[in-house]
Amino acid sequence: MNRRPGDSVSGRSTARPGETVPFSSVIQLRPPHAHLTVSGELDILSSRSVRREVAGALADGTTDFTVDATDVTFVDAAGLGAFVHLRNAAMARRGQLRFVGASASFVSVCGMAGLHRAFGFEPQTPAHTLS
Questions:
Q1: How far is CA 57 from the centre of its chain?
Q2: Sign (positive/negative) of CA torsion 47, 48, 50, 55?
Q3: How far apart are CA 4 and CA 105, in angstroms?
Q4: Which of 43, 46, 107, 112 could lock onto 23 through a cystine, CB 3.0 to 4.6 A?
Q5: How confident is the model over 61-71, as a mean pLDDT?
């Protein structure tokens, strides 16, 4: 796994010590497809916005979702839960969730939570097996 300065195992990254990265999410709807771009810190508070956007997309008949999480700097259990909910809802409608980009810290946290396969990420190679 490649880490950038400021990244940690928990996935939190700051621009400067003590300064957090604000969260943003944008959803582009073209039912039955939606593309969600998220950036910054995805936590218990910001995941509510993701859940609201997803609920609206599902209500509009969206079944297939792509997500770009390239600029996610932190994710907690609530943030992961929002994507688990999205995946389950899409699959219940015979759709899918596919990540088209994800930060190293996001992928790392997904791996620790056992979600790497559910989200389509390859399992991480343990550092001690690297040559």
A1: 17
A2: positive
A3: 9
A4: 46
A5: 96
